[in-house]
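Appendix B, Record 12. Input sequence as logged:
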Amino acid sequence: MITGRDNLQLINQHIYRAQTEQEKAVRRLEALHQELNALHLETVKRYRALAKLRLDDFQADPLVSRLDESDRVISNLLEKLQLARQDLQKQIQASLSRQQELEEQRKEQERGRDEAGQEIQRLLEEARQRITETDAYRRQKERAETADAVAQQAEDKATRTEKDRLDKSKPYEADDLFMYLWKRGYLTPQYQAGWFARRMDNWVAKHIDYQRNRSNYYMLQELPLRLREHAVKARQTAQLEAQALQTMEREATEAAGIPGLQARVQEAERKLQEHDALIEAEESRHRQLLEQQTDFNEGRDASSRRIVELQIAALQREELAELLREARATPRPEDDALVAQLQQMQQQKKQVETEIQSTNAFLQQQQRRLDELEELRRRYRHNGYDSYNSSFSGGFALGALLGQMLEGLLNSDGVWREIGRHHQRGPSGDRGGFGRGFERPDDERGGFGGGDFRTGGGF
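Logged structural output:
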């Protein structure tokens, strides 16, 4: 048997695992961006060297000055960007620490609630054993069960006759002559007719054996009403007996001091709900911080966009393109070395940019899975599956399902269905049924038989 709190701990562990993988990817991404910026600076450095090598001072100095100014602006922006990244990372770490702190506080609150709940279960069992040993309780329970059985039998019989009334009334109601006499109230004080109509009605009645069939039809209509009335009275009696039993049980729970403990459990549940609201608010703040981090990671913030614009502008100058073409065309060892280095750096930049793209995709995927895990945990808590009376069969492997979630093979809805399918709930602070008297099961109800309808004519 696995407790509900054990499985909550499993969910927490997988959330922590997802957060750890996310942090690793973020650190790797920061290193890649630093490598990319370093490659840009090294590329500019090589272009400076190439300019001084191939151009005279009059031509080289303005180009080098422009590259130096671009480097200075980019370096300042990179420094500001790095500070902003560090500040955001500190906020993210603070949010994670706050979540862990709130989780530890919640565990303490859970322990207090569970201790009270388990004490209720112990006292309930003791109260149940004491009261069930008394003659007064046994007699009242027997009366309640007998009254319930009588009421159930009466309800079954009434239900069968109601079904029979519908089925067995059809032949009568399909006979136009029979229904004509029935509606006119023939053979009742309400019947009124002239001498000619009376003679014709008498003839029809004799022809279809109306007197006998009317008696059968009348019983089909009247008997269900009488039996249902009897069933209602029997159920009222059974309810009174059950209430008397419930009163005895409630008095036993009150004598054991259970209502006070129940109040403690309810107050603990209320505080847990308030605490969960704090946890969810911090999780929401954490998601917002991660969205800001994603903007940095993908270069959507203002500083990153400006840096990229300046880097592109610095390296796409026509003077640099012409300088590179001339260096490639001139077979000098110094030129060849610089050109080879520039080509190698360009290849390295492409590789770094490709890894940045794949790491960003992984981070987005990891964030979706973390969101699903946190949503699963919220549903788990909101449904009280972490309470002291919540458990799962020993064969339920939640850890394996959560692992599949992290791998993207299952979503939270699929795991939630499995959780609900294997969940078991024992007696709780509401006395677990004790104190509510005798409760009858919902049984199947049968039918009630009757005679066949036959007329004397060939209708």
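The beta strands are 2-3, 390-392, 423-425.
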